[in-house]
Amino acid sequence: LMKGPLPSLFFCIGNPVVGNPTQYMMEEAFLAMDFPGQYITCEVEPNQLQTALEGLKALKVAGGNVTAPFKQLVFPYLDSFTESARLSNAVNCITLQADGTYQGDNTDGKGFLQSLQEQVGNLSERRVVLFGAGGAASAIAVELVLCEVQEVILVNRTREKAEALAQRLRGVTKTTVSTQAWEGTYQIEEDGLVVVQATSVGLFDEKRCIDVAFSQGLQDVIACDVVFNPTDTAFLKRAREVGATTLDGLGMLVNQGVLGLQNWTGMVPDAQVMRAALEKAFS
Ligand code: ATR
Fold it and tell me: What is the active site of this protein (predicted)?
C-alpha cells in the first residue's frame, strides 16, 4: 500500500517567530483534512538564511511560509515567482514544484482580497482608500490592481513611499492608482468607498488608531483592518459607529494559509477550522 514517503513537511521561517500563530492553524487544518502534514516553526538568524534555505531544498521540503524579516531577502534563493510576489516584491509562501525547483508566491494580498470579495462581491466599480505603503499595504495594493478595482488611492505617512508604490503599479491593469497627502485627520466622506487600514498602527498597542475620521451617514462603506488581534480594533470600532460594514484581519490571515495549503497539497482545507484554531490561540 505504501508507495513512498509523503511530501508532508512544511515550515515557517522568521525572526522572531515567538507569537506567530500559523502553526496552530496548519496543525488543525491537517487534522481536519486527514493529511499527515507536519508544520515546523523555525527562528533563523539572518546570516543563516541561505544555509537554512539550502537545507530545506536538500530535504525536499514541500513548502512553507516566510515572515519578517525575510520576505524580500529570500528572492535570490528561489527559482521562480508568481506575479503577486514580483509586483509586491515580497514572498510569504514557498512551494516545491514538480521539477524540484522552488516558487515564491505572495498569498497575503490574495488572502485579503478573498475576504473582501466574500464580503462585498464584485469590486470592479469600487474605489479603495488604502492606508500604508509597507509590506502589508503593498501586497494588498497589488491584488486590488490585479483584480481591476476602479481606483486605488494610497495614503501613507511618508507620501514618497506611497508614490513609489503607485508608480510600480500604474499601467499594470486599467486600475487608476493615485496618492493623497495625509496631513491632520483624513476624513472619509464618500459613500461606497472601501477603506483599508494596512499600517502597523494598532499592531502592538490595540488602543491606537490611525488619524482618520468617518463622516456620519455613510451607508455603504466597507472598513477593513489588517491587524488581526484583536479582531475588533479601534479603527474598526470607529468605522462601525457611523454604520460602516467592517472586515477584520483574521480572515486575511486564514485565507493566506488556505491558499498556501492549496499551493502545497492541491487540497482545499477547511477555513472555518483554521479560523477557530487562531481564535483559540489568541484567547
Ligand atoms: P508591515 O509589514 O506591517 O506592512 P512595514 O512594512 O514596516 O510593516 O510598514 C509599516 C507601515 O505602517 C508603513 O506604511 C508606515 O508608514 P511610513 O511609510 O511613513 O513609515 C506605517 N506606520 C507606522 N507607524 C505609523 C504611525 N505612527 N502613523 C502612521 N503610519 C505609520
Answer: 71 (proton acceptor)
Q: What is the CATH number for 66?
A: 3.40.50.10860
CA dist., res. 94 & res. 57, Å (int):
11
In a domain, 4, yes or no: no
Ligand 1 and 133: CB distance under 6 A = yes
The total number of structural domains that make up the chain: 2
Tell me, yes or no, whether 92 and 115 share the same domain.
no
119 lines ligand 1 (CB under 6 A): no
pLDDT at 1 over 60: no
Range of the domain at 207: 109-248
Q: Is 71 marked active-site?
A: yes
57 is in an annotated binding site: no
> What is the share, in percent, of the chain residues with pLDDT greater than 90?
91
Is 158 annotated in some ligand binding site? Answer: yes
Q: At how many degrees (to 10) do helices 135-146 and 108-120 cross?
A: 60
Mean pLDDT of 90-116: 96
pTM, entire model? 0.94
pLDDT tens by residue, 105-135: 999 999 999 999 999 999 999 999 999 999 9
User: Of residues 3, 71, 237, 280, which has the active-site annotation?
Assistant: 71
Q: Is 200 in the pocket of ligand 1 (CB under 6 A)?
A: yes
Residue 1 counted as domain residue: no
Same domain assignment for residues 125 and 242: yes
From the centroid of its chain, how far is CA 165? 17
Q: How far apart are CA 136 and CA 153, in angstroms?
A: 15
